[in-house]
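## retry 2 of 3
previous attempt timed out at serialization; input unchanged, resubmitting
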Amino acid sequence: MKKRTLIIFLTITLLLLLNSIAFGESEISALGKRIVISDTNDTSGYVTGIKIMILLTILSFAPAILLTMTCFTRIIIVLHFIRTALGTQQTPPNKVLIGLALFLTFFIMSPVITDINDNAVKPYMDNEITEDEAMEKAIDPIRDYMLNYTRDKDLALFIDIANIETVNNIDDIPIRALIPAYIISELKTAFQIGFLIFIPFLVIDMVVASTLMSMGMMMLPPVMISLPFKILLFVMVDGWNIIIKSLILGFK
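## retry succeeded, writing output
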């Protein structure tokens, strides 16, 4: 009943506003309240509203931008490979790994973010450039970043699929071909790092399994015995420091 009353009230108010605008009225009354409609040449309010709308639209795409156009994909996959290689099940938990990946992403992407803020966001908010110029200046740093870590083979794949015949320079590469090429390049790099991470832990599993077989303990799961040794090895070599350092230096 309350929802129906609210809908009726909003409908009446909208009809009164439309009627006022149609007949040029500057003031209407509704339910004991006065609504004043006036025309003004000041467009600052409209510009602010458009900026807010654009900002909210960009924020709605923020998760997709974070996953596809930054280093987040490589980092989170490598962190999951570490946990799988250690065999620690849900330790560290997913929330911890995602949080670590997010802060590492912000750290690595800080030069790109600063460039976008200085050359696109601030000038646009100060009405120094138009929306089209702001979008162009914002996409250029991200474009340069993705090109640095995209393999030529992957880029050529999507250029051929998109039937793009002439590419004279990197500016002719459309963003719709660059983004998927960058993603599969990052996936390949992450899996290469994951393979290198697995090797030492695989050796420990093989040694423990061979030892248990030689002792006749075939019913004892090798994972139970190898897990403490893998954790000990990872802690002794300061594994987190090595992995994080390698990830960060890989983007320099």
